[in-house]
């Protein structure tokens, strides 16, 4: 493995960490409704549990209401039960075939809990990026130790990996700040 491979690999993995972090941020509840909020809900479907999105169409009615349209007639009650029993604190209401899931307004205390959760997710993502930096630097040091690269190459590679790290950590900080604003907006 060359220094170029190590740098490319580190940057790719850092990008994947950012993508996973963005996915985790979407699951954190804000004051507005978001169909991704129901991604974790599992519904019993012919004896096995499947994600809600595989048995129903999930969409937004307005900024505070999610609609769930089951694809089969008899699934409405099971979907409603699964949403109610999930730890999301939501109370779905059936209207014929359509299930409406209103988002209750969040209290100030709950908003602060959510911002704390967003910060924790951000810190976990930063730790992942820093671990990738450490792994890349150790790989470069191993190349130098095995006489496959010079110490000057090592210094340059470590500086470039640090630039990637700084860029990704700044992106994480901006994503956390954006999510906090979204949560605190009433």
Widest β-sheet, arrangement of strands: 3-4-6-5
Number of helices: 4
For this structure, the CATH topology of the largest domain is: Topoisomerase I, Chain A, domain 4
Average of the residue pLDDT scores: 88
CATH architecture of the largest domain: Orthogonal Bundle
Stretches where pLDDT is under 50 for at least 5 consecutive residues are none
Termini Cα gap: 52 Å
The whole-angstrom Rg is: 22 Å
How much of the sequence is in beta strands? 15-25%
**What's the CATH H-level superfamily name of the largest domain?**
Ribosome-recycling factor
- Outline type: elongated
The percentage helix is: 55-70%
CATH class of the largest domain: Mainly Alpha
Given the helix and strand composition, which structural class is it?
alpha+beta
The overall strand count is 6
Total of domains: 2
State the major sheet.
Answer: 4 strands, antiparallel
GO molecular function: ribosomal large subunit binding
Protein name: Ribosome-recycling factor
InterPro entries: Ribosome_recyc_fac, Ribosome_recyc_fac_dom, RRF_sf
Subcellular location: Cytoplasm
